[in-house]
Amino acid sequence: MPPQFILGLLVIGAFVLFLNAFLKASPAHVAKKIKQIGFYVAIGFVVLLAIVKLNWIIAVIGALFALLPRLMPLLRYLPILKWVQNWRKGPSGFGNTQQSSQSTQTNSSQSSKVSARYITMTLNHESGELDGEIIEGQFAGQRLSTLSKEAIIQFHKECLANDNESAALVETYLNRIYGDTWSDADHQSHQQSSPNTKGNMSNAEALEILGLAKGASKKEIIAAHRLLVQKVHPDRGGSNYLAAKINQAKDILIK
Fold first, then answer.
1. Whole-number pLDDT of residue 241
2. In the chain, what are the domains?
3. Residues ≥6 apart with Cβ < 8 Å to 102
C-alpha cells in the first residue's frame, strides 16, 4: 500500500474525528479531543518514518501545507453544520426553540431548598441527592453528609425537642440514607408530633422550594412540582412532610 495513501487516510480520519468532536462536544471537550488526535497523528508519522523513505513523507507534508490555505475558508461553514445537527434533533434542539427555552428556564436552578430553624435542606433536581446545611445547634456550620449516623440522630433529637419542622427535614434525610428503621423510637416520637405544613409561606420561599426564578410561568411551576414530588415520594426515601411543603409551594404560586 503506497505511503501517500496511508498518510492520506490518517489525515482524513483526524479531520473526521475533529469535526465530530466539534459538533457534539463543548469547547473544552473539543480542545481535549484535538490533543488526542494530534497524539495519534504523531504516532502515525513515527510509524511511517520507520517503514518508508523520508522523502515520501516530506513530499506529502509539503502537499498538505500547499492545500492548507484552500481548506481554511471551509472552517467558516462548521457553525452551519452544527446548526443542521441541532435542527435534526427535533424537540430538544434548535428546531423547537420555544420548548428548549422553557426547559432551560425550568432547570436553571438545578436544586430546591426548604428551610427551617435548625437546617436548610437542598435537593438536587438531576441526581436526586439530598443534603442539609445545619444553621443552628451544636452542629451548626456542618452538612449532614459529613456527619456520622450517630451524630445525625443526636442532631435529630435536638431538633425534635425544639423545632418539629427541622426534625422532619432531618428525618427525611435519615430515611433517604439509612432507611426507615434507623431509630424506631425517634421515628414514632416524631410521628406523634408532626409539624403543621399549613403555616404562612411567602412567594420567595415557594420559588426556592420549587427551584424556580421569579416570574416563572404556570407551566413551569407545574413541571417543577411534578418532578420534585416524584423525587421526594416516601417510596423513594422522601417524606410526607417534604411532599406537603412542595404541594404548598405550588398552591402559593398558582392562585
1. 79
2. 3-88 (no CATH), 105-253 (1.10.287.110)
3. 219, 220
